[in-house]
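Question (not urgent): is this output format expected?
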Amino acid sequence: MIKEVIVVEGRDDVTAVKRALDAELITTGGFGFPKGVMERIKAAQKRRGVIIFTDPDFAGEKIRKKIAAEVPGCKHAFLPREEAKKDGDIGIENASPESIISALNKVRTESVEKRSEFTQVDLIRNQLIGNEDASCRRDEIGKILGIGYGNAKQFLSRLNNYGVSREEFLKAVDTINNSL
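Got this back:
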């Protein structure tokens, strides 16, 4: 059982997470956030901590950013896009219990103080920007590190803000270099 409260987007996501493990969940009801939801998330963060676990799509990313901006110190779990797809639909509700557990086992805490451990030079050196398979490489490294997929700017921000160490990063780069 996970001690933190998991924040997901909808009821189908709750069903999928409950199939994987026993946890307390809060739904945002999409981007609109019904009255009182943000207050419940803030209270849960004070009481037990919160894990934001939104869909790996544009709307999910907007919801994640909205919560993180208002509720500092949240943890983040990311589900790889291909593990959330079913019949052209992307969402947590489509993931297997194993994929959900794997994503929650790689949870990351967003740091409050901004770091600049990684720069664009790291992305260029490791072929994560500026070449035709950069997007695929970021996707694979994001899966390994548990920080999800992002464009170059988002990816760099996640490397710096989710406590990824240089050693973890280089190990992930080696892993994908050896598998390609």
